[in-house]
Amino acid sequence: MAKWIDIGPTDQFPTGTMRCVSTEDRQVIVCNADGKLAAVDPACPHAGKPMIDGELRGKVLTCAYHAYAYDVFSGRNTDFPYEELPLPTYPIRVTDAGRVEIQTTRK
Ligand code: FES
């Protein structure tokens, strides 16, 4: 069973922002999309460029390099939903104590 990893209090992830977080085995980008948290891979599936350079609008993260856009919850390309290479996403939750936790195994 995959373990949950504490990555900090919820106030470190304000609405509308995204932030790179490092765990023991990988980096993820944590996005706060209109108050709901999502965790995605830091590399764009198109050509491997850093998604942290992109722009988050609502639940859509647009890559800064060739403008591929992804739903941060499903990982699907919003322009080409049947694209074979979605942006990998990771399980994320908020505990009763207000801590954010992720799993680093892909959904
Ligand atoms: S590397 Fe992200 S769209 Fe091309």
Number of domains: 1
Q: Name the structural class.
A: mainly beta
Strand content: 35-45%
Q: Note the total helix count.
A: 0
Order of helices and strands: EEEEEEEEEE
Mean pLDDT: 94
| CATH domain topology | Rieske Iron-sulfur Protein
Task: Please identify the top-level CATH class.
Answer: Mainly Beta
As a whole number of angstroms, the C-alpha radius of gyration is 13 Å
Give helix % range.
under 10%
Unreliable sequence segments:
none
Task: Describe the global form.
Answer: globular
CATH architecture heading: 3-layer Sandwich
List the strand order in the largest sheet: 2-3-4-8
Span of the ends, CA to CA: 13 Å
CATH superfamily: Rieske [2Fe-2S] iron-sulphur domain
Which tags fit this structure?
107 residues, mainly beta, Rieske Iron-sulfur Protein, four-stranded antiparallel beta sheet, binds FE2/S2 (inorganic) cluster
Written overview of the protein:
- The chain has a single domain, classed as Rieske [2Fe-2S] iron-sulphur domain (Rieske Iron-sulfur Protein, 3-layer Sandwich).
- It is 0% helix and 37% strand.
- 27% of the residues are buried.
- The chain is an all-beta fold and 107 residues long.
- It has a four-stranded antiparallel β-sheet, with no helix packed on it.
- The protein starts with a strand and ends in a 5-residue tail after the last strand.
